[in-house]
Design brief:
It contains one helix and five strands. The chain has a three-stranded antiparallel β-sheet with strand order 2-1-3, with no helix packed on it. A two-stranded antiparallel ribbon has the order 4-5. It has one helix at 33-39; strands spanning 4-11, 19-23, 43-51, 62-63, 66-67. By secondary structure, the protein is mainly beta. The protein has one domain (4-54). The chain is globular, with a radius of gyration of 15 Å. Residues 5-68 form the YcgL domain.
Amino acid sequence: MSDKLICEVFKSSRKDEMYLYVDKRQGLADVPEQLLETFGKPMPVFTMLLTTDKKIVTGQRRRRGGWD
């Protein structure tokens, strides 16, 4: 198994801040139909290289008195 993966990220056309991260080689072929129905039309956002030595950073929430 490789320690690198080319990942394609899609944004939902129906739900704000909902994204799908998929293996670029597979595309959306393995995504369950029910999820795609809820997700709406997948809109490509970007492609990135994932490696075992780096974490995916998520957005931070603003809280009273500072950031999470």
